[in-house]
Amino acid sequence: MMNKGDFEQTPVFLGTSDPDFHVPVERVYASANILREMNASVTEKVYPNRGHTISEDEIEQVNRIIF
């Protein structure tokens, strides 16, 4: 699949749990690869056994990108 566009090194953070019963970790890896192919600056982090939730660390990671 060919994706068009250029993120011009826009920072992207993808956080997930393994396992996450709503979003398989493989899907996160695939999304990260597509974003990298589109020139995004991707940070991915897998948190063990957290389920489908947002952690304080994820909020801190995103705040570093935004602010």
Features:
67 residues, single chain, two-stranded parallel ribbon, alpha+beta
Description:
There is one protein chain. Helices cover 36% and strands 24% of the residues. It has helices spanning 25-37, 56-66, and strands at residues 11-18, 41-48. It has a two-stranded parallel sheet. The longest helix has 13 residues, at 25-37. It is flat and about 35 Å long. The mean pLDDT is 95.
The assembly state of the depicted protein chains is: single chain
Tally of individual helices: 2
Overall number of strands: 2
- The largest beta-sheet arranges its strands as 1-2
Distance between the termini: 34 Å
Radius of gyration: 13 Å
Largest sheet: 2 strands, parallel
The total tally of domains equals 1
Measured by DSSP, the beta-strand proportion falls in: 15-25%
Question: What gross morphology would you assign?
Answer: flat
**What structural class is derived from the secondary structure elements?**
alpha+beta
**Which parts are unreliable, with pLDDT below 50 for 5 consecutive residues or more?**
none
The percent range for helix content is 25-40%
Task: Give the mean pLDDT.
Answer: 95
Task: Output the helix-strand order.
Answer: EHEH
